[in-house]
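Protein in question filed below.

…
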Amino acid sequence: MILINLLPHREIARKQRKDMFNAGLGLSALAGGLLAGFAFLWIHGLTTDQQDRNQTLTTEIKKFDAQIKDIATLEAEIAALKARQQAVEDLQSDRNMPVHLLTELVTQLPEGVYVNNMVQVGQNVTLKGVAQSNERVSELLRNLGGRSSWFTRPELVEIVAGTVTLAARDQRRVSNFTVRVKLIRASESGAAAAGAAKPAQSASAPVAKQG
């Protein structure tokens, strides 16, 4: 017996395939939406955590900036106090500077050198005087530069030949000089003397012989 299918099986199969395709698209769209939602939530969570960290870091940085400003202010105040203390110490030590100046000048003046004018401005001293010769002026500079613990950096400003009348017919040639020198403060002088004493003590210390 021959069976003949009169139903439109091709259209039914085509419709089934179309329905399956649409269902697949829907499932794919749903899966994509779920994945996109999970990805968005994950990225949003990471962003939120990073923003919280950034906010925490910003808050801590502000605290550190305030502490740094406080430290800078304290350092400035300490530096100002040290400067005031140093100024007071310098004033106290400078009260005796004229005494040291005159005493040391008398000690370091070579024979044949006379000072007739002296001007002190702070630690700078200008000496004007008369010497029997240029060699006496050179000796004065050596004494002020290397043999004195109260004077430093002597500088010959001017030296001019001149004459001095000792009697009616007795005239002698002399050297009129101007010397500039720096007077060392008492604290600086003590530090320099201590520094010079240490090498001298180490050089004079006996060396033990090894048997």
User: Anything to note?
Assistant: The first strand starts at residue 113 and ends at 121. Residues 199-211 have pLDDT under 50 and may be disordered.
